[in-house]
Amino acid sequence: MDFEISRLYRSDGEDERLVLLANSDADIGEYAAMDSTYDEASDELTNIFRHIFWFPNQQVKRGEKVILYTKKHSGGKTYTYEPPKNGNVGKHFFYWGSDANVWNNDEDSVTLIKITGIQVKSYKDIQAKK
Fold this sequence. Notes:
By secondary structure, the chain is mostly beta strands. The chain is 4% helix and 44% strand. Strand 4 and strand 5 (44-54) form a beta hairpin.
């Protein structure tokens, strides 16, 4: 994959964030991050995804970081970029805009999916083709 899950910082509020590392030059807009639930009865992860963030199109260079904050940006932005400086890599900051943490217990997991194609049709349009 072009991106790898590097870290997940959970806190008691404001600063929950997912950090991805770019393994190659790529468009992060081809990816979505989500959490999956945990079934205590079976002691396994489920395929139930409660929260999904589809990244907007943005070119990221190899070695750069993609940081997804679950909170809202104080200035209302959904994306900011910090260019490389002082030997550090460039950082792409995305803001989910959630009022609460997404990964809110130890059994939740992060799933990163590359989206290679998508088709969307409304229920009304599909039913009209009977």
